[in-house]
UniProtKB/TrEMBL annotation:
Keyword check for Zinc-finger: no
Signal peptide: 1-30
Lineage: Bacteria, Pseudomonadati, Pseudomonadota, Alphaproteobacteria, Rhodospirillales
Keywords: Plasmid, Signal
Domain Alginate export as annotated: residue spans: 78-464
TM ranges: none
InterPro entries: Alginate_export_dom, Alginate_Permeability_Chnl
Protein name, UniProt field: Alginate export domain-containing protein
Length: 473
């Protein structure tokens, strides 16, 4: 990393820290019960999903920053400006499971996003978001999601139409989206550059049924300004439908995904992959209990062979809401198939495509491919807006004939390197503090103790530390 880039990242960090003081002060002013009996809805990770209705009342737009959130252009139309500035320190000791002879790798990652949301009073909407991401201090290896000069992160048009008692919306352009539990489609928030797609969507909602059909390509990142482009070597399409309140406390999702990628690499080899995924998710809440379960089967072709794979993710928890610190006990269990025999033409390795990151570890080092994982966790809330969690995740290879994979879908240890199934276990600690409406602080620590499936391939124990500050408005 050049000194010039390091200086830029230091500048962004200083700007973030100093600006956070301004927003903390503003929030304290707005917290006066006489001045503001209530506040705006929480800011969402996907910013085009922000609820801006609180700002529609002119009495809630007294300060300059509030005026930027809602500039009326008609009776129900508005222009809204917003942004996110995140700086995050990360340290892997050693990185890459100790396989690259780097004793320590640490860096400061900065992400700056700015958006404008234009909603007409008669239906159509335009959303535009620009982003710039930098990393200072990283030794490598670098990934496509590390750095980008100023570019279009999102830019789409919504065209809604009322149909009967529901709505159908055509969405065309560059966009982020998150589906269900995030097992197959997420933002990759753990990376410096989030997942975005040049895609066409048809979104529908009718009563308790909603969903979408889509077709698109993920972005191929460039370090040059305004040169990010769709990756035409990867087609991604699907249908995702949700039926809410099928029974009290039960919601049901059904989904189909297509994933066609040129030259994808697995333990079996490298070939063109045409994969289809069909599955369902059952989720809901009943009193203090909450649960979610994904069950999916994959088929298709890999080179001249076929694909037959399966995967599931079960998670559930119990919240003691009436006790001090409102503890929640939860467990997540994942089972994802691996290839039984690399010499055979059928590929059995499960592919979670654009899976939630982090999912299996705060270190963002594991992916649900050829894996069995059991992850119990406890979360407490000692203060309003502050949550602290701790857990242990034990992992095994589902098939000894397949290897160990890391995020996003990268083979890190071949199946032939070890006769053991045991990948290892992590001790996880994380804290998230929503200081106020504008400032969020996060921290995490992971200790990974490698099992024989990695140690016999040259892998080692590692420690991961993260501390981040997010300013958004």
């Amino acid at each position: 990393m050049t000194r010039k880039n390091e200086s830029r990242s230091k500048f962004f960090t200083l700007l973030l820290l100093s600006s956070s003081l301004l927003f903390c002060g503003k929030a304290a002013f707005a917290a006066d019960p006489a001045a503001a009996p209530k506040g705006p809805a929480p800011i969402q990770f996907i910013r085009y999903e922000d609820d801006l209705s609180w700002y529609a009342d002119p009495k809630n737009r007294e300060l300059f920053i509030d005026k930027l959130k809602y500039i009326p252009i008609s009776d129900s139309g508005y222009i809204s400006f917003g942004g996110d500035l995140r700086t995050q320190y990360e340290n892997y000791t050693p990185p890459n499971f100790g396989m690259r002879n780097l004793g320590r790798n640490e860096w400061l990652a900065t992400r700056a996003l700015f958006h404008v949301d234009i909603k007409s009073g008669f239906g159509p909407r335009a959303y535009i978001e620009f982003g710039r991401e930098e990393i200072a201090g990283k030794k490598g290896p670098f990934t496509p999601n590390d750095e980008s000069n100023l570019d279009l992160q999102q830019g789409f048009i919504d065209l809604p139409v009322a149909v009967g008692g529901g709505t159908v919306t055509a969405r065309i352009g560059r966009q982020e989206f998150f589906l269900g539990s995030g097992l197959f489609q997420s933002l990759a928030e753990g990376a410096n550059i989030r997942n975005a797609f040049d895609a066409a969507h048809v979104l529908f909602k009718y009563g308790n049924v909603e969903g979408r059909a889509f077709y698109g390509h993920p972005l191929r990142q460039s370090t040059y300004a305004f040169e990010d482009a769709p990756n035409l070597d990867l087609d991604h399409y699907g249908l995702y439908t949700t039926v809410k309140s099928v029974l009290p406390g039960l919601n049901v999702d059904g989904y189909f995904f297509g994933y066609d990628r040129k030259g994808n690499r697995f333990n079996q080899g490298t070939a063109d992959e045409e994969r289809r995924t069909v599955g369902t998710r059952l989720w809901g809440r009943s009193g203090p209990w909450d649960y979610s379960g994904d069950f999916a089967y994959q088929f298709g072709s890999f080179g001249s062979g076929t694909i037959s794979a399966w995967g599931s993710m079960l998670s559930g928890g119990y919240s003691f809401s009436g006790t001090p610190m409102a503890p929640r006990l939860s467990v997540t269990a994942i089972a994802a198939s691996g290839d039984r025999d690399p010499a055979k033409r059928t590929l059995n390795t499960f592919n979670p495509m654009f899976s939630l990151s982090p999912l299996l570890s705060e270190s963002n080092s594991f992916v649900p491919m050829n894996l069995i994982s059991v992850y119990p966790k406890v979360t407490v809330r000692p203060l309003d807006g502050l949550s602290i969690s701790a857990g242990v995740n034990a992992m095994w290879r589902q098939s000894k004939g397949d290897g160990v994979y890391t995020v996003p879908t990268v083979l890190v240890a071949r199946g032939s390197a070890s006769s053991s199934s045991y990948v290892g276990a992590t001790a996880e600690f994380a804290a998230l503090w929503n200081v106020n409406h504008f400032v969020t602080v996060n921290a995490a620590y992971t200790h990974f103790k490698a099992g024989d499936a990695l140690k016999e391939a040259g892998g080692k124990n590692f420690d991961y530390t993260r501390a981040g500050l997010l300013l958004h408005f």
